[in-house]
Amino acid sequence: MPRDGTATRARILDAAQRLVIDNGFNATTVDAVLAAAGTSKGAFFHHFASKQDLAAALVDKYVAADLEMLELGLAAARAAGDDPVERAVAFVRWYEEQADEIMAGTTGCLYTSVLAEMELVEAGTSDPITKAVVVWREEFAALLRDALPARSDVDVDALSDHVWVTFEGAFLLARTTSDPGHMRRQLRVMRVLLESLLRG
Questions:
Q1: Residue 3: band (very low, low, confident or very high) from pLDDT cuts 50, 70, 90
Q2: What is the pLDDT of residues 60-92, one digit of tens each?
Q3: Cys-Cys with 80: which of 90, 111, 118, 176 at CB 3.0–4.6 Å?
Q4: Using CA atoms, how far apart are residues 183 and 76, in angstroms rounded to an integer?
Q5: CATH topology agreement for domains 1-48 and 55-199
Q6: Angle formed at CA 164 by CA 162 and CA 168, multiple of 5 degrees
Q7: Going by C-beta distance under 8 Å and a sequence separation of 6 or more, which residues neighbour residue 145?
């Protein structure tokens, strides 16, 4: 009976994700991925037609996890009750409270590593990232519109994007300073500013 290769594929993807985040896609060789995953070249090419195919699979995996994380934040917002302001604040607070766990075991974000590689952008490998960013914007913007019904001076989409920008900036700051606590602190600042705007 043939063995299920799901575990091997997952191991390759996990190893590749760590290496790409740390070193970039072009600097990550297939041999380095194989060494980190503890598997063979034959196993690699059984699961991935090429290094480019690996990149696409990595993006799909990361985007799926990212959208699951979004849904957890939305669930926290729904659990906060009927007050639209409380729901919007609870969304950001949930990530603030999970920040240390989010940062555990990572030095950065795969999105940044992929978007820095023009060959991946031009090949369309980054397209799922763009779609994920739009989903984040639309979902949090819906919470913000409920919380800011009378504020025509606030660009709700831009404010929603700012949460995503805070995540990416915090990853960069954490990597630059080797201090993963920046994620929690930056999200706290974001929450405090958001509360000030929504309750002001």
A1: low
A2: 999 999 999 999 999 999 999 999 999 999 999
A3: 90
A4: 19
A5: no
A6: 110
A7: 156
**CA atoms within 13 A of residue 153's CA, in its CB half-sphere:** 2
Spatial separation of the C-alpha atoms in residues 38 and 167, rounded to whole Å: 32
Closest by CA to 22, choosing from 95, 101, 105, 98, is 105
CA atoms lying within 13 Å on the CB side of residue 109: 21
Only one residue has tokens 């766990």, namely: 101
For 123, list phi and psi in degrees, rounded to 5: -80, -5
- Dist. CA 77–CA 41, nearest whole Å: 45
pLDDT at 152: 84
Q: Check residues 200 and 47 and name the one with the higher pLDDT.
A: 47
CATH number, domain 1-48: 1.10.10.60
Pair 76, 90: CB distance under 8 Å: yes
- Under 8 Å between Cβ of 12 and 33: yes
- Domain limits of the chain? 1-48, 55-199
**Rg of the chain taking only CA atoms, in angstroms:** 19
E strand map for 6-123:
none
